[in-house]
Amino acid sequence: RFTIVCGPVAAGVFARMPNRERTILFDKLSYDRHWWRLWTQVAKTRWDLIVDLRQSAIAYVLRANERAVKRRATGGLRKYEQLAATVRAHPAPLPVVWTASEDRARAATLLPDAPVIGFGPTANWPPKAWPPQRFAALFHALQDRLPGAIPAIFGGPGGQERAMAAPLLGLLPGAIDLCGALTLPEAAACLQRCAVFVGNDSGLMHLAAAAGTPTIGLCSTTRDRAEEMAPAGQYAAWALGDGDRMQDLTVQDALRAVLLMLDRAELAPS
Length: 270
Fold this sequence. Notes:
Order of helices and strands: EEHEHEHHEHEHEHEHEHEH
Largest sheet: 6 strands, parallel
Number of helices: 10
Shape: globular
Strand order of the largest sheet: 7-6-5-8-9-10
Radius of gyration: 20 Å
Number of strands: 10
Low-confidence stretches: none
C-alpha cells in the first residue's frame, strides 16, 4: 500500500496508481507550517519505507524500517535514473502512466480514429515556448506522412495556458481543443491515442513520453540541461536547436526528428 505526498498539480499523476491508499496534498504555508501539518498526518504510522525526493528532514523524524532519500545528482544520470537510484533500482525503469477504463472511454469520445497529431504549445516559462507559427508549419509538413491527420492542442488549466495555446488554435482552426478540459489521467489516455506528440519542454511532454506515444520534445532555451531532462519513454527524443533561443530550432529540425521517431516506432516489433 502506498501513501503519496505531493502538491496539488501533481496529484493527478497518482490518481489511478495501483495500491494507492491515499494522497496527502502538500500546500506550502507561511513560516514552514506545512511541514508541521504533514507531520501530524503521518507521524502515527510506522512506515515500512519512506521515499523522500525533496531531501527534507522529515524522513528522519518519522518512524520507519527503511529510508531512501534522494541525493545530489552525480555522474551525468538522467532525471528518471536519479529517481530510480534513490531506491536502488537498476536498471532504471522507464516512467509509466496509469489510466482507468473511464479515462480511455472519454478519450475515445474526444479523439477520432483518424491519425491525431498532438501538440503541446505551452510551457511554465515563456522563453521555453516554440513560436506557434512553427507548430502550424510542422503540422502541414507532416500531412504527407500522415494523410488525413487532425491536430489536437493540449494544455493545462488556467488563463496562462489558454493564452499560450490560443495563437496555435487560431492558426489551426480545425484543431481539437483540449486545453484545460482534461484530468491528468484523461490527458494520458488522449495522448495514448495520438500518432505522435510534439511539445515544448514541459510536464505534458514528459507525460506523453511516459504514455508510450512517439514523442518529440522541443528544446533550445534549456539545452544546458537537455541530457538530464530528456523525455524518457520507449519512443521519445529531443529536437534540439542550434542556439539558446527557441527561435534557433527550425521547422526542418523538428520535422526531421518527428519523421525519424515515426520510422523507429513503425519498425519496432509488435
